[in-house]
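chain below, 505 aa
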Amino acid sequence: MKFPIIISDKNKYSLILKTKVKKILEKVSITKLNLVIVIGGDGFMLQTLKLNKDKQRIFYGINSGSYGFLMNKFSEKALKNLSNAKKISIYPLEMKVSSNNKVQKSLAINEVSILRQSRQTANLSIKCNSNYLIKKLVSDGVLVSTPAGSTAYNFSVKGPILNLNSKKISVAPISAFRPRGWKGKIISDKSKITIFNLDYKKRPISAVADNFEVRNAKKITIKIKKKSKINLLYDKRVSLHKKILMEKLRNSWFMKSLVSISKKLNTTKKELGFIKIYDQYLKRFKNKKINFLEIGFSKDSLRLYKSFLPKANIIGLDLALREKDKYKKADLFYGHQNDYAVLNKILKKYKKFDVIIDDGSHINSHIIKTFNFLFKFLKNDGLYFIEDLQTSYISRWGYGGDPINHNNKKTTMNFIRSLADRMHYQEFDNPFYKSNPFDGQIGFVHFFRNIAIIQKKKNFYKSNLSHKNSVYLGMIKKRKDFDLRNFRDIKNYLRYFFNLIFSKF
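prediction:
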């Protein structure tokens, strides 16, 4: 059996992986005889590709560095199924640099960087074929990137992320000073780019193709070299296409506000004015693995939250299955929000939640009952949203609200207001107070029009009236007008001693 070539950098972890890979591949039949397995980071992969640019080989990278966008994660399963790995072809840039009566060439798989060499900014002129992209650019430099390299240095200078099959090249300025509004261009990969240094004596520049540098460059020509095709293998589960797409989504779509995503998806929540509130409170969960439960969902709302929180487990609970609300990226359950059998089924799978949204029946008794049951399964620092509080004031249609007595204990509004008291239970100057399950569990209660947000937060601080009431007593004693014949002062004095006695228990 012909064994593939295995190359690794000198990193300790790389050498350990090399031994593991050899043992795995000894038991596997490799059909691709020209396969090269590269173990290291992106830098080592680029170096290896350049050394083997003229050889018809296929490369499979295994990441052992800090970052490996071009690499695969080490997986025994993936190595055993190398024959099913996805093949991707990329085309490098060819850089020709004229400097000091010399012409030097190099290939760039990621990008060609034109950088100022001194403290002074570079004065550049950029042509695309025979037309000027920009006649004079005053900047720290410019980047010309391939689709594979568009997620690297290019993206850090706010250049566009290109799809791998886009057949485009990105030209992006680095800290453009003049003109300030120029953000670069996306051009065809058939184009030839020529960059001139307008003031090479006073303002020298260097041209860098990945890790090959030429200093004091006067003229640089850049184009895609189709003949130098590079073939890479990727695990089907995380191909380079998917990596670029996810990076593009994460840094353009997902990084946008919930408001802008809502406009794009045309959701109904924006009309109710809730969307800005959700954006404010949910943004801290971005790119975090959380459990997110929505009671009373639609496909629109699930898509909205999944787009904003890409790593979240989105769980939906609704009364009945609606064909139009099927959504593959969410885990959907069906039943009443007060059906403990359904709730326990969800809890068995997900245990705890970071965010719970009650947008269910809106019936006051249902909301209170659901909250009493689910709140204990909310993680510390988690958020509980209750929508459509207007039903607290509506008695018709079976909502159970009270339009007259706003202190009715059976309404949602009054129940939530009582939770604010639970934040201050330590301050209750009542020795006969009976504890409540929510004591010490409420971080904040925030009200907005028709929506409330409750934070679960351990809250076991000592009372301001504690310190054995010494502060309280001192305040009484310092008063010049203190008089035991005054009923108010007698009351306060007795209260002090009463609290002092009961604090011992």
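The CA atoms of residues 98 and 456 lie 65 Å apart. The first strand starts at residue 5 and ends at 8.
thats it, cya
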